[in-house]
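Minutes, project huddle
Topic: does the predicted pose make sense with oxa(dethia)-CoA bound?
PN asked that the exact inputs be recorded in the minutes so nobody has to dig through chat later. Recorded below.
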Amino acid sequence: MRLYSRITGTGSYLPPRRLSNADLVSELAAQGVETSDEWIVERTGIKARHFAAPDVCSSDLGLEAAQRALAAAGLSAQDIDLIIVATSTPDMVFPSTACILQNKLGANGGAAFDVQAVCSGFVYALTVADALIKTGTATKALVVGAEVFSRILDFRDRTTCVLFGDGAGAVVLEASETPGILASDLHADGKHVGILCVPGQVSGGQVIGDPLLKMDGQAVFKLAVGVLEQAARATLTKAGKTEADIDWLIPHQANIRIMQATARKLKMSMDKVIVTVDQHGNTSAASIPLALDSAVRSGKIKPRQLLMLEGVGGGFTWGAVLLQM
Ligand code: UT7
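Predicted holo structure (tokens), as shared on screen:
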């Protein structure tokens, strides 16, 4: 019998401090940075974002999301033998946020490591966990996307600081004889490093270079729409499925216009696209599991439905995972 990995629980968490566009616009205005609710909504679809308190790290947000996913799966932390955290805002330079999360969960002993693929991190991490389960290396995995992007935003740069937020999402992935993950497609093109990056580095006890996020939004936008279509089609081909088989498209939640363009290219109605970007902005690696959990808990996503998860972001990285719930 063929071995699959299957999602058996989802969870997510947004830190309590919520800033509507109006809240952020007035905070920025006090610092002489001019933007507006109209611009943000029209260009991105974002209406609010959440920012973590200064002493809260990615592992803290990940812990809340992971505990919810474990409860949904009916498992305890001790059942988990693999933790992968997708993050670009780790708690420390090292060790990994996954090791820190493992200890906070009390799930000590299994494998734990981070995946750094920026906004594609969750589809990368899910694909790695799937592979480790299929080879028998792991049997019950926690795959977490957790970010505190507020820490790396330049609040003098209106072209980026209105876009991002903090949050975490998690899934429990278990070995199963019932189909779960059907196919994945991962890519990167390192020649585009400069269009979305945090160029600073820690060296000799100092930060060398700028430790704040830089993005050429238009370049990212154009690349994103093209590669999201390609990754979706490649994944469908690998699984022997077509666009018409997809029940729900769950793209990286960065910009509603990218999601609309992707849906158009795949000839899918927006009714089949899960959209939560309005509620939390771009939470990088956390955005897909946040959207997934919200749609599972609201009852939109039903057992055995076919989902296409799609990530795209810094690197430049992109990828898709097709799975049956
Ligand atoms: O997570 C990884 C993936 N990241 C993404 O997917 C982001 C992809 N890019 C985007 O989502 C969009 O390119 C942005 C939302 C970042 C920008 O939208 P755009 O429609 O490409 O705007 P633009 O950069 O062409 O800027 C249009 C105008 C400019 O003014 P001028 O030059 O036309 O006078 C900007 O200065 O909008 C201005 N602008 C703003 N105005 C008010 C830029 N940011 C703001 C702002 N408020 N916050």
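Observations noted during the meeting:
- The first helix runs from residue 21 to 30.
- The pocket of oxa(dethia)-CoA is lined by residues 35, 39, 43-44, 119, 158-159, 162, 196, 217-218, 220-221, 224, 254-255, 258, 282, 284, 312-313 (CB under 6 Å).
No decisions taken; revisit at the next huddle.
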